[in-house]
Design a protein that fits this description.
Number of domains: 1
Distance between the termini: 31 Å
CATH topology: Alpha-Beta Plaits
Bound molecules: inosine-5'-diphosphate, magnesium ion
CATH superfamily: Nucleoside diphosphate kinase-like domain
CATH architecture: 2-Layer Sandwich
Shape: globular
Number of helices: 7
Structural class: alpha+beta
């Protein structure tokens, strides 16, 4: 790991459950505590049209209607974080998709749970590759 790394950006969303539970600050604090810069920040309402772009890979999945219902249930906070290897680092900080399986110390593992209704609510989204980060940032921050 001695090679110079390019500065990356990652799109993070504090999902409606994270906003409703007052976890915006905790998510940003964890990113800032590790030294990543906040490059963009906005409180937004996700529309079904925007989500069809954001979750293009998932539109055909059986859980997609429930995912749209979840993601439109309240405002989200869209954040662009910046720094070398921030995509890998923030994915590690977010933890496994299912909060029950997410390791303690991760955002999902520290703040998430199974609420007993058969749905997954996991507080944050994070882009999983440089390609998806660029695509998702253009969707959420088209003016940038
Ligand atoms: P990720 O958010 O950890 O990258 P993905 O597989 O990309 O996970 O799925 C996107 C989102 O779709 C998840 O964060 C979660 O909100 C939802 N999701 C994924 N798989 C399921 C499922 O099996 N049931 C319900 N919701 C799911
Ligand atoms: Mg994903």
């Amino acid at each position: 790991m001695s090679e110079t790394q390019p500065i990356e950006q990652v799109l993070v969303l504090v999902k409606p459950d994270g906003v409703a539970r007052g976890l915006i600050g905790q998510v940003i604090a964890r990113a800032e505590a590790r030294g990543y810069q906040v490059a963009q920040l906005a409180l937004r309402r996700a529309t079904p049209e925007l989500l069809a772009l954001h979750y293009a890979d998932h539109v055909v999945k059986p859980f997609y209607p429930a995912l749209v219902e979840y993601m439109t249930s309240g405002p989200v906070v869209a954040i662009v974080l910046e720094g070398a290897q921030v995509i890998t680092a923030f994915r590690t900080m977010a933890g496994a998709t299912d909060p029950v399986k997410a390791a303690p110390g991760t955002i999902r593992g520290d703040f998430g749970r199974d609420w007993g209704d058969g749905e997954i609510r996991n507080i944050v989204h994070a882009s999983d590759s440089p390609e998806s980060a660029a695509r998702e940032i253009a969707i959420w921050f088209p003016e940038a």
